[in-house]
Amino acid sequence: MNWERYKIPVAVIVLALLPVFFFEEGVSYVSRIFTIFLLYATLALALDVAFGQTDQLLLFTGGIAGIGTYTAVEMASVLGVSLWGTILVGGLAAGIVGAVVCWVAARRQLNVIVISILTISLQLAMIQTFNALRDITGGNTGMEVPALTAEAITSTMGWEPLTFLYYLFLLLLTALMVVHHYLTNSKYGLAFDMIRQDEVSAASTGVAVVRYKAFAGFVATFFMGLVGPLYVQIGGYATPGMFQFATIDVLVLIILVVGGMRTIYGPIVGAALIVYVNEALQAAQEFRTMVFGAMLIVLFLYFRNGIVRYARDLAVDRFDLGDRLPG
Amino acid sequence: MAVGARLLIGLLVDGISSGLILAMLGLGITLVFGLGGVLNLAIGIFSLLGIVLVMEATGLVGNVFVGVLVALVAVGLVSLAVDRSLLSLVYRSEGQERTLIGIFGTLGLAFFLEGALILRYPDVYSIPAEIELLRVAGIVIRGSSLVSIALGLVVFGLLYVFFDRTYMGQATRTVMQDEVGATLCGIDTRQLRTFVFVLSAVVAALAGMLYSFTGEVGVASSFQLTINAVIVSVVGGVTSITGTVVAGLILGIITTYADAFVGAYFAAIALFSVAIVVLLVRPGEIGA
Amino acid sequence: MLTANGVTKTFGGLTAVDDVTFEIGEQEIVGLIGPNGAGKTTLFNTITGVHPPNAGSITFNDAELTGMEPHQIARLGVARTFQTARTFNESSVLENVVVGAVFGNESSPSLDAAEDRAHDCLEFVGLDGRGEEEAGSLTIADRKLLELAKGIAAEPDLILVDEIGAGLTGAEIATITDTLERARAERGISVFWIEHVMEAIMSSTDRIIVLNQGRKIADGSPAEVRDDPQVAEAYLGGVEV
Predict the structure, then answer these.
(1) Number of residue pairs across A and B with CB atoms under 8 Å?
(2) Contact yes or no for A129 and B234 at CB 8 A
(3) How many Cα atoms within 13 Å fall on the side-chain side of residue A28?
(4) Do B279 and A113 touch (CB under 8 A)?
(5) Considering CB atoms only, which of C87, C91, C150 is closest to A193?
(6) How far is A280 from chain C (nearest CA, A)?
(7) Rounded Cα–Cα distance for residues C96 and C94 (Å)
(8) Does chain C touch chain B (at least 3 C-beta pairs within 8 Å)?
(9) Given CB atoms, is A109 within the 8 Å cutoff of chain C?
(10) What string of pLDDT tens digits covers the 327 residues of chain A?
(11) How many other CB atoms sit within 10 Å of the CB of residue A40?
(12) What are the chain C neighbours of A207 within 8 Å (beta carbons)?
């Protein structure tokens, strides 16, 4: 049986059923964790398009999500429309920033270290800019965000706000999974793979390296930008601190590496694990930073291929399944 | 002298003091990257370690100078341990792999140590230098800045002698220029890397102490220090020792003025923008 | 087909390629030899856009190559192999060739059509049946054949081959030489070939260009080049043979 075709539908169905089994009425704590899980899975899968597929270590996921958020919210307020209408604009703004950065980096043939320092500097500059533009962002103290609601749906389905938000996130994640899958199995995926392995050889074979890298950057940051406005729905407000490197990027990186790069299930499995660990550490909050720090070290030294690929290899060896497993 | 000029000069002194501290941090990044291709993102934590250890040691021993010495030795030992464990593992890989493992390994270390330190030292600290404000020809100069400058100059004087006159120092410069050639001359790069790593950690600890003379520092600002160090190193050209020092001074002065006249946010934005521009226009050795 | 006129490339104070002029015609196999450091690979790099020349022009089928990006030049019909056989080692043998078929020229074949062409090219170089193997697991000789297959899959007019004989046994070199000759005869592809293995160059080329210290010092048939005293001097430094 060819699993490949079914991996996305299976994932969507399983994820769609989670609220049915786990969400309890009035217990927002649980719903919140699951929603955050989807949020991080989406961010990690988006980062995969840039880092996993084309080796562009972008360390400004938080800032990009912030750009998406503030652009969408500001436009909604300026144009006097509901946030629904401007989310895509936010995504576009974020995507353009990502595309430009990746294009310039590819053109100047910047290597991994330079791109990482460059994007981290951009990340920090973005946060400071968010802080400085108090009129738009409310600065340090933050601002309230218009709610994304759909009365018609929530009342018919009898959903709580968080449940609705969960399914909204699931919708976004599904869209990203479809895009990711399409890209991987198309000429884009072929180009990405060769660019990642050997840029010079790829270019000499006729692959327009700069354009493909910029495109990968665009896709990644576009989706990160879309996540932003949804992310801030959880609390109903947004502060620049919510988009910081230590808050977002570190977790997203760990998730992507733990789960496995260049796989669709990887970010989902990784997010499940890390969000669970994060919650388990609630009791021992103080040790959280230490634990994640240690995880980063161990991960990058010994488990760089991630869980999904490790499990796949194990299954292939043990059960001789050949190429038929999804991932 | 006009009020404006007095203010400018006072700020200049602060700027130079801040610049020397930045240069010390940047130097740590430059040395370790130049010798082993590892971007040490844990350098800020060594600064903080220096600060808290000085406090503890001084409390124990009662004497600030002895306290400083003890703290520096302790930081040296910790960094030695890190070199023997984490870095040994990092150095096992080559090229792009080593770069990535180096970045994330040291980042993980930074988080790990930060998490550990903040458990015991959750506040912000400053070393009470109890130095008065000085008034020279009507200019208000912060005594702490002057002390920092004095100590900073001593440190750099020593470093200069080290790099110019000692075997280790010259060997370091040689390896940074041409590793293969240096090995052929019989230089043991691994030992040198260990030495340089420890040196960079100790200098970073010193920088941290000087930093806390002039202001309050908390464990949470360790990452900020690391970023500043990286930016200074990048602007200075990453493998150039003199470049890093000059970059540190310039950036220190620019940010002090920017901070005073344009506000903290824009000063920070300016700093990051300089880094971004330099990276785009002249990635230098780090882009090789 | 390919015309180079007064091509010069300097790196800082060093002139790697010095005012080189030559032509390569249809279905020709032209060798490029010269002592180490003569500028041969640099010349290739100027043609493929990796190191645009400081002076001179290079035209290919009436298109000016200087100033173009490497991938654009590749798509025009100029393929190349590298001294170190830069195959995509994490991918399968088949995928390596598919890349050439998909991106190597102006037409944009579907993945299926590209796969067909790839199979055909693998057969052409003698790697058929090995499409599913990981490229990194191949011997160096096979990886060089794979790189050739990738280049041929792009259906180029010209392939630049850079020291493909290095590290190969006599039999392996013979296979490669045969493949290049068949590429010319059966696919109409011209070959511009840097090589140090003299027997291969002397026996299979129509013409040989000789570079020394960046300058072209000879351009003629293998026999002419072999008897050229300037060539002998360049290699032997004026030592009496």
Answers:
(1) 126
(2) no
(3) 7
(4) no
(5) C91
(6) 38
(7) 5
(8) no
(9) no
(10) 467 778 899 899 989 888 888 887 777 788 889 999 999 999 999 999 999 999 999 999 999 999 999 999 999 989 988 888 899 999 999 999 999 999 999 998 888 888 999 999 999 999 999 998 988 888 888 888 888 888 888 788 878 888 889 999 999 999 999 999 999 999 999 999 999 999 999 999 999 999 999 999 999 999 999 999 999 999 888 999 999 998 899 899 999 999 999 999 999 999 999 999 888 888 777 788 888 899 889 988 887 788 788 787 777 777 765 555 444
(11) 25
(12) 71, 99, 103
Reported ipTM: 0.90
Got the DSSP string for C93-149?
A: HHHHHHHHHHHSSSS---HHHHHHHHHHHHHHHT-TT-TTSBGGGS-HHHHHHHHHH
User: Cα separation of A222 and A232, whole Å?
Assistant: 17
CA–CA min distance A157, chain B (Å) = 44
Whether the CB-CB separation of B62 and B54 falls below 8 Å is answered with: no
Q: For chain A, what's the residue count?
A: 327
Helices (H) and strands (E) in chain C — how many of each?
Answer: 9, 10
CA of A207 vs chain C CAs: smallest distance (Å): 6
- How many C-alpha atoms does C147 have within 13 Å on its Cβ side? 28
d(C-alpha C168, C-alpha C182), whole Å: 19
- Retrieve residue B74's tokens: 């302790």
Judging contact as 3 or more Cβ pairs under 8 Å, the answer for B and A is yes
C-beta of residue A148 within 8 angstroms of C-beta of residue A229: yes
Residues of C in contact with A206 (CB under 8 A): 71, 74-75, 100, 103-105, 154
Per the DSSP assignment, residues forming a β-bridge with C4 are C22, C58
Helix or strand run (H / E) with residue C8: strand C2-11
The CATH label, of 1.25.40, 1.10.3470, 3.30.360, 1.10.287, for the domain at A3-324 is 1.10.3470
Q: Where are the domains of chain A?
A: 3-324
CATH number where B240 lies: 1.10.3470
Evaluate whether C95 touches A201 at the Cβ level (below 8 Å): no
Distance from CA of B31 to the nearest CA of A (A): 16
* Partner-chain contact B234 A117, CB within 8 Å: yes
Chains touching B, CB cut-off 8 Å, 3+ pairs: A
CB contact under 8 A, B100 and A300: yes
User: pTM for the complete prediction?
Assistant: 0.90
Question: In b/e form, how buried is each residue of A116-128, taking b as 16+ CB within 10 angstroms?
Answer: bbbbbbbbbbbbb
How many domains does the structure of chain B reveal?
Answer: 1
Task: Give the number of other CB atoms < 10 A from CB of residue A211.
Answer: 14
Structural domain span for residue B13: 3-287
> Mind telling me how many Å the CA of A54 is from chain B's nearest CA?
14
Number of residues that this document lists for chain B: 288
Q: Are strands B217-218 and B133-136 parallel, antiparallel or unpaired?
A: unpaired
Q: Beta strands A143-144 and A237-238: pairing type?
A: antiparallel
Cα four-point dihedral sign B274, B277, B279, B281: negative
Q: Are strands C190-194 and C158-162 parallel, antiparallel or unpaired?
A: parallel
